[in-house]
Amino acid sequence: MPERSSASSDVPSVRAATADQAGYSARPWRQVLRDYLTLTKPEISFLVTVSAFAGFLLGSPTSLDGGTLLITLLGVGMCACGVGMLNHCMEHRFDATMKRTADRPIPAGRIPLAHAQWMGTGLVLASVGILCPLVNPPTAVLAALTAILYLYVYTPLKRHTTYNTIIGTIPGALPALGGYVAATGTFGAAGWAIFAILVCWQMPHFLSLAWMYRNDYARGNYAMLPVEEPSGDSTAYQTIAFTVLLLGASALPTAFGPAGWLYLAGVLPLGGWFLYTALQFHRERTGIRARRVLKASIVYIPALVALLTIDWFL
Questions:
Q1: CATH number of 188-314
Q2: For this UniProt entry, which segments traverse the membrane (predicted)?
Q3: What is the pLDDT of residues 193-205, one digit of tens each?
């Protein structure tokens, strides 16, 4: 196992903590807004919110409570954005050592660290404050648990064990379960089905990303599987295994009743295509093949939710 030295925290931390206030204030507001949007990890926050919508649909087999749905999506989205911001704050020193992340707003000194910390914390607290009285307490508890597990379990483990990825799937999948709980107030089988789908989906998504940027992760001293095992055997096998599991998990909403055969007829070939990209990556472990797995994963969740939505309305 390669030795991981501690990343330098001198210049990057000073830049992040003491961003030039005059320059920050003088920047066009659109640039500042764009940097704050970047800190929310909008792509991930979008997928998290979409997964909560899927859970809500599965918990509403006959009718939708539009008001509760909107509040749920708002609360989940705010929590995801806040957690993304706080994750940027916690990792800014390490981001500064990696080519892919060195120009992020905090390590680059464009957004003061304290500002991002306050805003991120405010978004998470506001999400819980909205979900608890306006949706139900269990949904708020799941949102709080998501933030705690992501920030204080998964994030530190990224530098200590390759198991961080599988552990990180739990907070990554809780918002989908939260959507179901928001609709029903209970932890039913269909809710655990969408939770299982998100757990399985995250593994090929993040393993392919880790393979593409393994050299960067090595520079940042992250204990990612492709860094610790350069041959890529475990990365490729796990990518296939979890894509197969995803194919099976994606059939559970139909098996448990809320989703119909139209959904199943669409999701099985979708999963087959995803599996095909994983098999190709196993045969040829290149950045191009890994990127195809990543692209398939990015398409998969929105497409699955679209199928659930079409199936629900028809």
A1: 1.20.120
A2: 44-63, 69-90, 111-131, 137-154, 261-281, 293-313
A3: 999 999 999 999 9
